[in-house]
């Protein structure tokens, strides 16, 4: 087991919740006027991204030198991620300070775009050649699912009654997709290369992995019974995503652990 | 092909004495727990004989270094001679290179709170000397080669027990240990 990388767990999950919220905002714009309180919603988006960025600084050996993080935009996905997350945060903070009850579609779409770019850059950053199990599109897929699950969940705090069934449907769909992906991927790894197999075993043997699965299933169960999203349910989903992300960082096996043994 | 300095690891000659790894420590005095060169024993599934075989490995000074590609502050550069240098004063200690190098070459220095790795002793190379590990090896199992001028031979790039990654394209070359002769009585 490698380190759990708590600052990265917080940064990735909270920023994806923020991105998911603006995604759901755009979906609601598309679905027609539904009311709600845009200002409060933007405040939550900015707060989630702000806390996420602040948490990410604790991951650095030298946080005060983080201003140089954009030096390698040409090649490093991490530089691109920092840029996109920074612009996203600035847009959200601007919307929260200047916004009124009704949101601005331009800000929504600009945030959706930068948010998706940040998500893609994150997906590429955490898909390095040293981690064969996730040296592919999987991190982006995991992150997108987290964004939609959390976005739909938290958006229910702000959406008007007319939009609640739509959000509940999106929440359920994302949870079902998330459960299928989370259950099948580690099993598929078991028949892959040695390091993939070890990663599959490590994930399936991690209590936090099963806590994530159980919390996703519990959210589905609640929605099945309620047909609407209770106020506390997004918090439960958030706990699940944090547990799942901790598994992603701590249990994905690095090629260097096996040098001298078969790959 | 451009000049590309590399290590040639001759596992037929290597006796696993750790002199190369110790020479590196003696030369650079890394912090406790920080190791640039490792001597990895080959697992029995790869070399199932009574005598053992080893790979002595540090940074492979790859053609397309994962470390260099992912570093957000451009703390890595690749020299004309192929040596990949980590400029520690630029590093902010994000660990991205440590997570990304398939060979576990960059490591975290908990005192400096920055990454570091094998530098191929480039100051020694510039002075016409061999890297400390190569110079110290008592059996000549570790050699300095230039891939641009190297003759074809019995060396391989990705032997069993070494992570294969064509894209990163590591420079180290290996001579595999021979199967011992069985004497029947
Ligand atoms: S072995 Fe690792 S640290 Fe060395 S050049 Fe290759 S990717 Fe970079
Ligand atoms: S730890 Fe240092 S050298 Fe490595 S990627 Fe981060 S800033 Fe670059």
UniProtKB/TrEMBL annotation, chain A:
This is DMSO reductase anchor subunit. Keywords: Membrane, Transmembrane, Transmembrane helix. The chain crosses the membrane at residues 41-61, 82-100, 106-126, 138-160, 166-190, 202-223, 229-248. It comes from the Bacteria. PANTHER family: ANAEROBIC DIMETHYL SULFOXIDE REDUCTASE CHAIN C (PTHR38095:SF2), ANAEROBIC DIMETHYL SULFOXIDE REDUCTASE CHAIN YNFH (PTHR38095). The keyword Cell inner membrane does not apply. The keyword Membrane applies.
TrEMBL record, chain B:
InterPro entries: 4Fe4S_Fe-S-bd (IPR017896), 4Fe4S_Fe_S_CS (IPR017900), ET_IronSulfur_Cluster-Binding (IPR050954). This is Fe-S-cluster-containing dehydrogenase component. Transmembrane segments: none annotated. Residues 5-34, 82-111 form the 4Fe-4S ferredoxin-type domain. Keywords: 4Fe-4S, Iron, Iron-sulfur, Metal-binding. The keyword Metal-binding applies. The keyword Heme does not apply. Pfam families: Fer4_11, Fer4_4.
